[in-house]
Amino acid sequence: MSVRRRFYARPLLATVTSIAVLTGLAATTAPAVATPAAATALDDTYYQDAVGKTGAALKSSLHTIISDQTTLTYAQVWDALKATDEDPANPSNVILLYTGRSQSKNDNGGGTGDWNREHVWAKSHGNFGTSTGPGTDIHHLRPEDVQVNSVRGNKDFDNGGSAVSGAPGNYTDGDSFEPRDAVKGDVARMILYMAVRYEGDDAFADLEPNDKVSNGSAPNIGRLSVLKEWSQEDPPDSFERKRNDVIFEQFQHNRNPFIDHPEWVEAIW
Predict the structure, then answer these.
(1) How far apart are CA 268 and CA 63, in angstroms?
(2) Could you give the CA distance from residue 131 to residue 18 in angstroms, rounded to a whole number?
(3) What is the pLDDT of residues 9-40, one digit of tens each?
(4) Out of the domains of life, which is the source (predicted)?
(5) What is the rounded CA–CA span in Å between residue 103 and residue 93?
(6) What is residue 104's DSSP assignment?
């Protein structure tokens, strides 16, 4: 089990610089984020069948809505991530999820120092691999340093562990991984998106979060209680919202509803 360390505390009304918010590099502060006007407008169109619902009814409605998507091949994911995770301060680079490093888009691959495609919902949890569908869904695929991706492996998410070399603010132990503060909420909302999108009514497993670690190949990832804390303490920032828009407008044409409506996390779980 993970050695639990105290969850970071940061004032949600703190002011951060616009660059830090855009890149997701603010490791100690995050603003309170009201529902953006764009998301409110979506309530009259994209989310109209979900608004006003809670619990299983909300989850079911959102599943129907976000299942209407364009799928990508695993090869197409490379170019998609170069657009979704582009560094707003340097359009030639992407921002890596766990390290926060800005790195050339051309450094993608499998060598030391390269970035590759991290499955935030580990692809072995449900055995979907890199198959078109959950294995190529860019709502949970992110650029990450090859070595750090290997350290994360298929571990569940939880607080605690030892510092990850080359990735300040990240911690790991034998059964879990804790990402840096600035992307804790991002990780939580990606996991919960997957749990709503993939409900076992296609060729893939019913993906569900639970409140334990060491889930192995079961179609589960934990800890749900910690993920809920992370989503609340690290609300969506400009980088995450823009990423959601790019996926919707240019690639899959579906959205992560927990970025548009983070309050729906508590409404379902």
Answers:
(1) 12
(2) 37
(3) 333 333 333 333 334 443 333 344 445 556 67
(4) Bacteria
(5) 5
(6) E
Instruction: Write out pLDDT tens, residues 42-96.
Output: 999 999 999 999 999 999 999 999 999 999 999 999 999 999 999 999 999 999 9
Distances (CA, A) of 201 to 67, 72, 131, 206, 207: 10, 19, 16, 8, 11
Closest CA to 165 of 185, 145, 182, 184: 145
Token pair 């984020």 is at which residue? 33
Do the beta carbons of residue 2 and residue 160 sit within 8 Å?
yes
- For residue range 67-79, what is the model confidence (pLDDT) as tens digits? 999 999 999 999 9
Between CA 158 and CA 1 the distance in angstroms is 9
Query: For residue 234, with 0-12 CB atoms within 10 Å meaning exposed, 13-18 middle and 19 or more buried, which class applies?
Result: buried
Q: Please, how many CA atoms are within 13 Å of residue 237, restricted to the half-sphere of its CB?
A: 29
What count of residues does the chain have? 269
Structure tokens at 170: 């990240």
- The residue whose two tokens read 């779980």 is 269
- Distance, CA of 36 to CA of 41 (rounded, Å): 9
Report the run of H or E that residue 163 belongs to, with start and end: strand 162-163
